[in-house]
Design a protein that fits this description.
By secondary structure, the chain is an alpha/beta fold. The chain is 32% helix and 19% strand. It is globular, with a radius of gyration of 25 Å.
Length: 751
């Protein structure tokens, strides 16, 4: 256990703190509220959900290597000698999946050495723990080593929420938020609303924990959880494994939820013990009543949650979600019909399991039980098949227990303990041909081009068990509950229900977890960044607001439809530039659709009158000192927490983003970087913006919380429209805007 003193300190104070909170609030509390109030640095009161901004003191910070580069570059600018809270960096995003784990890891160590050396040196200088390449995916490593019931953490990745499987409030943020906490400042969040999900019954047959969140995604949609914490409760919640709970919380990011969590129970205790943290489990046992919502809450949930959803696990069937969006939820019994009606490619070319979402011992063992059937029943696997272990501890244990041998015997490829295909780090042969095809995976996101860069790849999300069965059949319409396969002898074969182990029967084992402990600060470390580097670039402060309204901004793009952070700042091959703001800005809005011509990456330069790639037009405006504006649609910035999607427009002289609605993290990221984040007061005003328009934002000299600003839209024919635009800035966030960024404000404060 790496931070036992932190855990002891937390539990030693929890009883007195809860008593104080109860006295102040004077009503029963949900688990989510208890954890939030326990970590509030604001004066305790009955905060208005969805309205009040509250300051919090998280227990720790975690950063993955792609986002850590920019987060640490920003931390360096804050002029601090060490981090104020326990923090870790995890080298998991930059390893490309191509051949196999050992080859791919060796290539990554070579091509990314500059970045790894930079991260390691910064960690050493400021007292940050460093998990080396190959150690595992950040969220799985956090669950195995750091997460504990009742705690709060933030991480520079949207799937930080995975730690909710161990009863935490874990929230994905941008790097600037992480810097706030690492320099010792409170972290600000609008107090979330609450969705209570009651789970009845228990899973059986082919249904898995993954199917719970796949079904819920269909209910809530990709933005239905925005501004909410999802809290699971009921007998069904208690019947799930700890890692199954993690799977559910992890993919809660795909419905826009701030985070998700479960109350402390037996499965969490068993997982803590199995991962070498019995002392933590013993402490949690003493305060288990504080690590669950109050009984009155669950007896009458509609009184205490803003929304209540009930799911009966006894009748839950497997789901397959997609393509192109994680909330298109189809029960497996209806999939064959959907395939015909939508003309989806039926042949499954690749099945992929693992990732941070589904790489537990339970997931792998249940999937291996199906793979074993293929061997025993003489079935030939019809699709390519890959496994991405979530951590070295899981990988080593499944190898020791013979599960990797089973997968190897059916021709599977085992990739490195890293993100790989889940984030576009997959060198898939033939993807450049952009042929229409279908893949099925147990990951979390399936946006167009997400996995392999091919916009015609139809990616479907399912449990590892279903993915394995579909790979055996090679047929997207295959339903293992009722359908038969034909083996090599011509016999009709029906697959048995998958079986697995919640925890390894012989315990977890590992030789080298890959952890480099830098708890002791070494300020003598010299951090060098070459001026000639294409991967790393020291940051310069953004310019502060000049005190005037923003006049006659040129329209860069009016984006139409889905515009996720993948559309704004693509991952895949661009990950290598995450530490170099200028270079990565060359991917700005590459995936966004121009509403005026329905083309991707093709917008009009208002000065030359010519059409060009979006980042080229943006750079033209920047080089000619022309300020610009972005117009967007619903749920703009959905998906990843990557703050590059906010920093790039700022770097390219975009001053304002006006949309119908924002995804939470992206809106905050824009605010942090000094970009004015606004929404249409009337969503129909989106239609008033024309291709050659220039826009002004008025009222900034009197910029106040809850007061609308005015936008003037100047048309090329000499007419104009005047509309109102909304914002969610509080007084502190307005100071971010005035200073030019939140980081500027921090640096000035600590200068």
């Amino acid at each position: 256990m790496f931070d036992l003193k932190l855990v002891e300190s937390f539990y030693n104070k929890i009883d007195s703190k809860i008593k104080y909170i109860k006295k102040k609030i004077n009503r029963p509390l949900t688990l989510s509220e208890k954890i939030l109030y326990l970590h509030s640095s604001s004066e305790i009161s009955d905060f208005a959900r969805g309205e009040d901004y509250v300051e919090f003191n998280p227990d720790r910070v975690a950063m993955q290597d792609a986002t850590a580069q920019m987060a640490l570059l920003q931390f360096i600018m804050a002029n601090k000698n060490q981090v104020a809270v326990p923090s870790t960096v995890h080298a998991d995003h930059l390893i490309q999946a191509k051949n196999n784990s050992s080859e791919d890891l060796n290539v990554a160590l070579d091509v990314n050495s500059e970045v790894y050396d930079f991260l390691s040196s910064v960690c050493s200088k400021y007292g940050i723990g460093f998990w080396k390449p190959g150690a595992g995916i950040i969220h799985q490593v956090i669950l195995e080593n750091y997460a504990f019931p009742g705690a709060m953490m933030i991480g520079t990745d949207s799937h930080t929420v995975n730690a909710g499987g161990l009863g935490m409030i874990a929230i994905g943020v941008g790097g600037a938020d992480a810097v706030d906490v690492m320099v010792g400042m409170p972290w600000e969040l609008k107090f979330p609303k609450l969705i209570g999900v009651e789970l009845k019954g228990s899973l059986s047959g082919w249904a898995a924990a993954k199917d719970i969140i796949l079904k819920l995604a269909g209910i809530l949609t990709v933005k239905g959880g925005t501004g909410h914490i999802i809290e699971y409760f009921g007998e069904g919640a208690e019947s799930l494994s700890c890692t199954g709970k993690g799977t559910i919380c992890n993919m809660g990011a795909e419905v826009g939820a701030t985070t998700s969590t479960f109350g402390y129970d037996k499965s969490m205790r068993e997982y803590l013990i199995s991962t070498g943290r019995k002392s933590v489990a013993d402490m949690a046992d003493k305060f288990s009543h504080h690590l669950n919502g109050d009984p009155e809450v669950y007896k009458n949930p509609k009184k205490y949650f803003d929304q209540v959803i009930s799911i009966d696990l006894d009748v839950l069937e497997p789901y397959i979600n997609g393509p192109f969006t994680p909330d298109r939820a189809t029960p497996i019994s209806k999939m064959a019909k959907e395939i015909i009606e939508n003309k989806w490619p039926k042949n499954v070319e690749v099945g992929l399991i693992g990732s941070c979402t589904n790489s537990s011992y339970e997931d792998i063992s249940r999937a291996s039980s199906i793979a074993k059937q293929a061997i025993d029943k003489k079935l030939t696997v019809k699709s390519k098949f890959t496994i991405t272990p979530g951590s070295e501890m899981v990988r080593y244990t499944i190898e020791k227990d013979g599960l990797i041998d089973i997968f190897n015997n059916i021709g599977a490829s085992v990739f490195a303990n890293a993100c790989g295909p889940c984030i576009g780090q997959w060198a898939r042969s033939g993807s450049e041909e952009e042929k229409e095809n279908t893949i099925v995976h147990s990951f979390n996101r399936n946006f167009a081009k997400r996995a392999d860069g091919n916009p015609k790849t139809h990616a479907f999300v399912a449990s590892p068990e279903i993915v394995t069965a579909l790979a055996l059949s090679g047929d997207l319409s295959f339903n293992p509950i009722k359908d038969y396969l034909v083996n090599n002898n011509g016999e009709k074969i029906k697959l048995d229900v998958p079986k697995g182990y919640e925890l390894p029967p012989n315990g977890f084992d590992v030789k080298d977890q890959g952890f480099q402990n830098f708890d002791l600060v070494n300020n003598d470390v010299n951090i060098k960044v070459s001026n000639n580097s294409s991967r790393l670039q020291l940051l310069k402060p953004f310019s502060k607001w000049d005190g005037n309204d923003l006049i006659q901004l040129s329209l860069l793009i009016k984006a139409k439809g889905k515009c996720t952070t993948d559309h704004i700042s693509m991952a895949g091959p661009w990950l290598k530039f995450r530490g170099h703001l200028d270079n990565i800005s060359n991917n700005l809005l590459l995936g966004a659709t121009n509403s005026f011509n329905n083309k991707v990456n093709f917008v009009k330069n208002q000065i030359t009158g010519l059409y060009d790639e979006t980042p080229s037009v943006a750079r033209y405006y920047k080089n000619n000192n022309i300020s610009s504006i972005i117009i967007g649609d619903e749920n703009y910035g959905e998906g990843s927490s990557r703050e590059h999607a906010a920093m790039e427009p700022r770097h390219m002289n975009v001053k304002v983003v006006i949309v119908k609605s924002f995804a939470r993290i992206h809106e905050t990221n824009l605010k942090k970087q000094g970009v004015l984040a606004l929404t249409f007061n009337d969503k129909n005003d989106y239609n008033k913006v024309l291709e050659d328009d220039k826009l002004s934002i008025l009222g900034l000299k009197k910029f106040k919380p809850s007061e609308k600003l005015t936008c003037e839209i100047f048309h090329s024919d000499g007419t104009k429209d005047i509309i109102k635009v909304n914002h969610t800035y509080n007084n502190n966030q307005i100071e971010w805007f005035k200073a030019g960024s939140a980081l500027n404000l921090i640096a000035n404060k600590y200068d």
